[in-house]
Amino acid sequence: MINQSTGSGIKGVSRAILTAVVAFVIAVSIFATTAFAGLASQYNVEIVVDSNEPIVITTNETEPIEILSQANITLSESDKLDISAFTSGKGGTIKVDKANNINIEFNGEINTYTVYEDTVGEALKSLGIIVSDGDKLNYSAEDSVKDGMVVTIKSAKSVSLTVDGKTNKYAMYQGTVADLLSFAKVTLGKDDYTKPSADTELEANMKVTVYRVEYKEVTETETVKYKTVTKEDSSMDLGDTKTVTSGENGKAEVTYKVKYVNGKEDSKTELKRVTTKEAVNKVVKVGTKSTSTVKSNGVTSKNGFTVGQTIQGRYTHYCACGTCGSGTGVTASGKKVYNGMPNPYYIACNWLPMGSVVSVDGVNYTVVDRGGSGLSRTGRIDIFTPEGHAACYRYGTGSCTIKIIRLGW
Hints:
Layout: H1 2-41, E1 43-49, E2 55-59, H2 64-70, E3 80-87, E4 91-97, E5 100-106, E6 109-115, H3 120-126, E7 150-152, E8 157-163, E9 166-172, H4 177-183, E10 193-195, E11 207-211, E12 213-224, E13 228-237, E14 241-245, E15 250-261, E16 264-277, E17 282-289, E18 301-302, E19 305-306, E20 310-318, E21 346-348, E22 357-360, E23 363-369, E24 380-384, H5 389-395, E25 398-406
């Protein structure tokens, strides 16, 4: 009984040990397989940021952004990423160009630019800013670009350019207006021009404007105004008028070549005119009959005045324009007047009855019109002048002797 019991215990222990060893071997095998598999999926990637020394990292990431994140490199929206030399899962080089804002000061003005270049010299060159031997910089061309740095150029010329409704400032160091346009990538059309002209040398604080010129043909319907034709009639009293034919405006289709400068009409030249409706001239008969004697109406006195009375007065002149009167050409008595008519020998005054005839320094005039309060004073008269406004000034004012020939019509 004892021997059997002992033998059975030894065999049991051996089996337990054997089982444990097998399990350990399997575990080591699984771990080794997994570890080697992990090592097998990793690869090296070189990262170059601007001109800094390359960074090499070992990664099993496949996306460039994740690889950069693993290297603690964060991209901004304006940074440039070059993965042309990188292959996901295999390796290569990832290049990062960081965007830097640099401030360039010239003549007291500061402009901000975004650049990707590594040195000050390269950045200025990329912006088209040429630094001559006489210019002074607060940095050397080899200095590294740093975000927010201020580069001062003391000899730079600040010029402004206005084109297509927008004004921008540029730093120019030499050249002409044409060079400024080239730098600003502004192209002139065949009729466009600039002020100052394109061959003008640039100066500090110069303002350059581009004028866009465009030509169009435009056809318009225009009114052709009728003319007034006067015909003398010896059977009518001097100063009387009569309309024989009423005037009527005509129409014409007129084609113009219109010049537009910066979108606004500048001038136009008539190319063609086609009359679609002829104008009808106004014909007016003008009386020329002059009577050396004035017909008496039998009235010898009225309103304190008598026929034959002599008064010392003062005269002025007026015409049929809107400045002198209403501009309608109709007097208070209903008589029609217009500039250019034969002299009807009319006066305006408020102190004599309408239709009265007076001799003014030996020339007979008929009262046919009224005027302002100044004409109410005895002896004050305003003489109608058909020669126009300039003649009124030319004849001026003065004293006169007035003799009453007739009172009223």
